[in-house]
Specification:
This protein is of the alpha/beta class. It folds into 2 domains: 248 residues, TIM Barrel (Alpha-Beta Barrel); 72 residues, Arc Repressor Mutant, subunit A, CATH 1.10.10. It has 14 helices and 15 strands. It has a 9-stranded mixed beta sheet, sandwiched between helices. A 3-stranded antiparallel beta sheet has the order 10-11-12, with no helix packed on it. A 3-stranded antiparallel beta sheet has the order 13-15-14. Helix 6 runs parallel beside helix 8. It is globular and about 55 Å long. It binds iron/sulfur cluster. The site of iron/sulfur cluster (SF4) has 11 residues, from loops.
């Protein structure tokens, strides 16, 4: 099973924490859509198997007209072997989801909406410099459901300097009130060169409070459990039939093709070398809209690539799998990695096996509820360097 990610690099305005690739000018939108279609055709032989997910991410994919989205979707159907039960996700901002747009999206084949709510609190939305307000966030969920979208996920952020425990509880309660079947919740991080970094450096807002972040993460875990959502990945919660197929494929190490400026691909190389994960390469496209358009128009190189070596494959396997309920499979490590890596893994794992942070079930190791809080430390201890 494999998936296609399509990056739509446009946004109405810049959120203060964001370091993704996007432009607030729509000047090249038409040319970019044409170029995405070109790249989809150009790379039609990169994925041999059947596609079971298409994911429009960004940026803000809901800024595209539905006709533009349809051009891209049709091109994928024309050139790839697409499963009949495809999961077709569109990341959207609440302020783009009018009733008409939602109807047209439904007709276009989009069957999963990922709505970038981030908060239902106007003060916090202002702090983030989001383009929508609280009532637009609520209205967009309600309208999506009324039009018949069942597979909806929303994003929320915790840990911001303006988020109180009460507002966080209110935000989480909305997930339950709207009966949203999937939630992605991320701790705020201060990325270099963002407006948020500047705001903190210049004293406009305090440095993020780690204790508050941990307390809000704890509340998140408790409330989602109460709402019947499973934490199937550290930051992702859902009812089983609504788990993100696209992201689950990433975490399970399946192939994916990334289309568009700044998009990454993870593809099997032929013939595979030692072990399954060691037989992959990563490709990343240029992070500049105009350079991407010009390079594809002039048939020039628009990406870089690297073969994933055995050490990197092992580290990535541990990093992604340990964060999920599918866990690290011991026989996978044994079969796919060399003796040195296996010896290292057994040695570093030992202290954790006797602790309350990891649990073993048959052949699988997963984080305990306590272990989730120190997932990053455990992963870095298990890394082979
Ligand atoms: S809408 Fe999303 S991609 Fe665009 S600036 Fe905000 S967080 Fe970044």
């Amino acid at each position: 099973m494999s998936g296609i990610y399509i990056h739509i690099p446009f946004c109405k305005q810049s959120c203060n924490y964001c370091d993704f690739h996007f432009s607030t000018s729509l000047k090249y939108k038409t040319d970019l859509v044409k170029t995405l279609v070109k790249e989809i055709e150009l790379r039609k032989n990169d994925l041999a198997g059947r596609i079971n997910t298409i994911y429009f991410g960004g940026g803000t994919p809901s800024l595209l007209d539905v006709d533009e989205l349809k051009l891209i979707i049709d091109s994928v159907y024309k050139h790839y072997n697409v499963a009949s039960n495809i999961e077709l996700t569109l990341e959207c901002n609440p302020d783009d989801l009018s009733q008409k747009k939602l109807k047209d999206l439904k007709a276009s084949g989009v069957n999963r909406l990922s709505i970038g709510v981030q908060s239902f609190d106007n003060e916090e939305l202002k702090f983030f410099n989001r383009a929508h307000n609280s009532s637009e966030a609520e209205g967009s969920i309600k309208r999506s459901q009324d039009i018949g979208f069942e597979n909806i996920t929303i994003d929320l952020i915790y840990g911001s300097p303006v988020l109180t425990e009460k507002v966080w509880l209110d935000n989480l309660q909305k997930v339950n009130d709207f009966d949203v079947p999937h939630l992605s919740a991320y701790g705020l991080t201060v990325e270099p060169k963002t407006k948020l970094e500047h705001q903190i450096k210049t004293g406009q807002f305090p440095v993020l409070d780690d204790d508050k972040m941990i307390a809000q993460f704890k509340t998140l875990m408790e409330k989602t459990k109460e709402f019947g959502l499973t934490q199937y990945e550290v930051s992702n919660f859902g009812r089983e039939e609504f788990y993100s197929q696209h992201n689950s494929n990433y975490w399970k190490g399946e192939e994916y093709l990334g289309i568009g400026p700044s998009a990454h691909s993870y593809l099997e190389i032929d013939p595979p070398r030692r072990g399954l994960s060691a037989g992959f390469k990563r490709i990343w496209n240029v992070s500049n809209n105009l350079k991407y358009i010009n390079a594809l128009t002039n048939k020039e190189v628009y990406f870089e690539e690297e073969t994933i070596d055995e050490k990197t494959a092992f580290n990535e396997y541990v990093l992604t799998r340990l964060r999920t309920i599918w866990g690290v499979q011991l026989d996978y490590i044994k079969t796919n990695f060399n003796t040195k890596i296996n010896d290292h893994f057994s040695r570093e794992l030992q202290p954790y096996l006797n602790s309350s942070y990891l649990q073993t079930e048959k052949n699988k190791i997963t984080l305990t509820q306590e272990g989730i809080f120190i997932a990053d430390k455990i992963t870095s201890d298990l890394f082979y360097v």
